[in-house]
Amino acid sequence: KMSSGRGGSxxxxxxxxxxxxxxxxxxxxxxxxFEDVRCKCICPPYRNISGHIYNRNVSQKDCNCLHVVEPxxxxxxxxxxxxxxxxxxxxxxxxxxxKVTIIIYLSVVGALLLYMLFLLLVDPLIRKxxxxxxxxxxxxxxxxxxxxxxxxxxxxxxxxxxxGAQQRWKKQVQEQRKTVFDRHKMLS
Amino acid sequence: xxSEQLYHRGYCRNSYNSIASASSDEELLDGAGVIMDFHTxxxxxxxxxxxxxxxxxxxMSNGGGAPSxxxxxxxxxEEPIPGVGTYDDFHTIDWVREKCKDRERHRKINSKKKExxxxxxxxxxxxxxxxxxxxxxxxxxxxxxGLIDIAADWMNDLKEGVCLSxxxxxxxxxxxTSNETTFAERDKCPQWKSWAELILGQAEGPxxxxxxxxxYIYWALSxxxxxxxxxxxxxxxxxxxxxxxxxxxxxxxxxxxxLGKWTLMIKTITLVLAVASGLSLGKEGPLVHVxxxxxxxxxxxxxxxxxxxxKKREVLSAASAAGVSVAFGxxxxxxLFSLEEVSYYFPLKTLWRSFFAALVAAFxxxxxxxxxxxxxxxxxVEYHTPWYLFExxxxxxxxxxxxxxxxxFIRANIAWCRRRKSTRFGxxxxxxxxxxxxxxxxxAFPNPYTRQNTSELIKELFTDCGPLESSQLCQYRSQMxxxxxxxxxxxxxxxxxxxxxxxxxxxxLVFKIIMTIFTFGLKVPSGLFIxxxxxxxxxxxxxxIAMEQLAYYHHDWFLFKEWCExxxxxxxxGLYAMVGAAACLGGVTRMTVSxxxxxxxxxxxxxxxxxxxxxxxxxKWVGDAFGREGIYxxxxxxxxxxxxxxxxxxxxxxxxxxxxxxxxxxPPLAVLTQDDLTVEELQATINETSYNGFPVIVxxxxxxxxxxxxxxxxxxxxxxxxxxxxxIMLNSRVYFTQHAPTLPADSPRxxxxxxxxxxxxxxxxxxxxxxxxxxxxxxxxxxxxxxTHNGIVLGIITKKNILEHLEELKQHTExxxxxxxxxxxxxxxxxxxxGKPRSRVHHVQLIRSFQDGRGGGGDDSEEExxxxxxxxxx
Lengths: 188, 874
Known about the structure:
The complex is a heterodimer of chains A (about 190) and B (about 850). Chain A is built from six helices and three strands, in the order αββααβααα. Chain A has about 190 residues and is mainly α. Chain A has three domains: about 1-30 and about 95-125; about 35-95; about 140-185. Chain A has a three-stranded antiparallel sheet, covered by helices on one side. In chain A, a hairpin with an 8-residue loop joins strand 1 (about 35-45) and strand 2 (about 50-55). In chain A, helix 1 (about 1-30) packs antiparallel against helix 4 (about 95-130) and helix 5 crosses helix 6 (about 160-180). In chain B, strand 5 and strand 6 (about 705-710) form a beta hairpin. In chain B, the strands form four sheets. A three-stranded mixed sheet of chain B has the order 3-5-6. A three-stranded mixed sheet of chain B has the order 4-7-8. A three-stranded mixed sheet of chain B has the order 9-10-11. Chain B contains 37 helices and eleven strands. The chains are: A mainly alpha (about 190), B mainly alpha (about 850). At the A-B interface, helix 1, strand 1, strand 2, strand 3 and helix 4 of A face helix 7, helix 10, helix 12 and helix 18 of B.
């Protein structure tokens, strides 16, 4: 009975991760964004020219001062000396990866927040009318209260199984919370 | 030849036993194996040498391999009872038993291999599953580290403003293509709006400063609140750094749910929030926990690892290497970290797997490229300037600072955590997090060095002043008037910007020191590496700039004259920052080799190894002078985890008899007899006591040892028998022997429990020195050990007894002063004042008779050595 619930959530989580990865890779392969490379040259002050930053979109082999610094602020015979001082760096990024990552992250946080609100606000209200299950904040998880929960867990419909898995999970978290926050047995 | 000699020695002992202890002949028969004194152990170990794995010791020490292994085989051929051999929450695993189990399983697969193609494929899958699971772990931890890096960067910048053109970019990515060309405006771009600009519409002025200040505090508080709420509601185990617990788990402790999927998810999510909230914490330690969660979850896919706790710990060792690999971009450093700091059992195979996992994880993170610098960490630096011999003095001074800081931090943090643990103050975790976050935010904002992300601060401190640098730290005078080129004179007089930066850095140092003490141990995911490194980097940079100015103003000193010619680049302040960071981290964690390798992988320069080594070693010495434990060991002790440190030496002279339970005042040891108990009596014994295992003896009269049965296994077996076997009643006889005892005709069917009996429990005699016992526990990873006298069970020593004993000794004596004498002479307590053996009479006499036969002599300790040498030469 334990493995079925766990297996279910496992498959689900695995599917989500694979889907996201695929999405990411497809996205990544499709649009190698034009804006995702840059060659940045930083030229320090030289004689009476103040320091400048040059930022251009060139390929890696063209990433040097002669190609990037435009217009050249110094006359022709000084170009070499000026360019020696400049430091050019070629940089790449993947804006799609960033976008997808942030969106995934925010959606997970949002989902967790909603679930948290549900657990803290809505769930106790529903539970109040349910005589078989005990409230979440009961101190003693008595053994005799388990049997009414377990047959539900073995129920046929998906909803009942999810419900059972959720109850088990809640009990585990409750136990962890007691260990960490009340008894200070761990992680203090 | 070998066996003959062994036999001969065993024979000597037996004949002696029969004379001196006047034992019966019956006892003599199994005496050779069961009476296991420490000489046998050592000899056998020496004989086995490196070729033998602990498992063969296991068989060996129980009186010959052949009979015990056949019984094991028989036991496994019997129908196994589901659940037997698993462990309860917060229990210690038995490494020896687990390894035996794995070997048995392996043998079964190997024997079936040739039967069919399917079985052959299964055996291949089994052989490859180790590599597969570390590959998957590496992939997952690399991907999660990338996610954490990107999300934390973005959220951190969210405190300052937002990118209007693309919400998901942080400040730097937002201004990726900006064309602001002057140095003064390099950080500004039209797309990036600070909160004051968005709300008030103005970017400058006191009003916007206050607005930004307010928004900074607001975001910091909301991130911290969200993090602690998620931790509290979904996964309380996700808080803290996780390394002390992982060390404990790797040493063989079970904490259910600590490496589960909810912990993984919540830790990943809240780690980002905690880092972004600006609290003085880092993400490196928790990343190790995240990687271990991945390792644990993936090991469920492979029966080889999911069903065997010892094998699972091999995967976790590899996973922790992958975690450090992605945290610092240091794959080799990660492997060494796993070896030096967290792992308990680390065979070569695990080393290779750790190496591979670290490689895969680093590769994945590199392809995600979270920082856009083609590196794995934000603060990667590259130096090429050489260092000079006299600079070792400041480096060593930094090491001293690191050690002092480490010792101070450990004391202060442990005192604070103890307060949290024991007083009412620990009842308000959410409030505490909010309070610390608020104080941090209020004091951090005004100082630019504390306002920014700690990783960025470290990067800025590590980086040398080049033309690319525009930070305040690099405002040297020559740069300001712009008349001189840089490469001409790198050692320059400091400008006002540098002086201002010095002040701010000093304030930042004090602030970081204080806040880190109160932050580590909060109920959010919090790592220690980054704040420690930041503190060291700040101190190092200050020293570096001081040295630089000293060299500039006194370049005619003999020291500087020799090395620093005018115009030569001689002091690199960034290098000092790095050495300081390594020293402080070393002082706190007491790592040495792995730390140096991690830092040198960060810099990619081999030439700085000597300064780093000098600083790290000094910091370890200084730190050890104030207390031998690193922060992780201290937290393990504070929480009372059953962790037997392999690094500590046991230097006391107690005997097994003094440590074993029951004590003299206690009720007698709870034992089971092998064939005259009923189910009811057995259950009564189990219910009346709280022990986790019971020795099984022949009968109340003879009291000789048969084996050991675990409480959990007994309960499961009885449950199972009740459900599946007919006719098991409360007055059924329970027997552990091979054949059922003869019973009266009307009695109910007996219950056979032989399959759950451990026929080969570890035993020592009551006179074994604790030094040896502790060594056996550490090296073999035992869970318990029985104490016998002439084959009669006297008591039991468990891992927890040993830990309690160590704790007691630590409080009673000053080990530093006492240990010197004991080192020279190995077993002083067993000798009387006249130098003659006192309590271990039997034993020494035995050797003497043996030695006399060969014409040997001399004093006791010499004899022991001779004896050992003999053993190894056989």
